[in-house]
Write a structure and sequence with these properties.
This protein is α+β, with helices and mostly antiparallel strands and 93 residues long. It has one domain. Helices cover 13% and strands 28% of the residues. The longest helix is centred in the middle third of the chain and has 12 residues.
Length: 93
């Protein structure tokens, strides 16, 4: 099991956000299944986006960090949404 944190930061002022997006948290814990050993950030974002509805993605930045606080990089060759069910999400704040 791998645990990472996703930091969600709006890139526009709150009054410019879609009303549904104004309710998003700023920090989520993503627990990935044991079979996930590579593309950690990509899989974490798959799991996050399959569980947390975001109306206007372009209004946010999503940063995936490991338990040391190190930002994990994305793999340009990763097939998005291919592992959406490989973990679960908890709202932290």
């Amino acid at each position: 099991m791998t645990i990472v944190m996703i930091h969600v930061t709006p890139s526009v002022s709150i009054d410019k956000l879609h009303p549904d997006d104004q309710q998003l948290g700023s920090l989520y814990r993503v627990t990935l299944n044991d079979e996930v050993s590579e593309d950690i950030a990509d899989v974490a974002l798959d799991v996050f986006h399959s569980s947390v509805a975001v109306k206007e993605l372009d209004n946010f930045t999503f940063e995936v960090k490991d338990d040391n606080g190190t930002t994990l990089s994305l793999n340009d060759d990763y097939e998005s949404y291919s592992k959406s069910d490989f973990g679960y999400v908890d709202l932290v704040e």
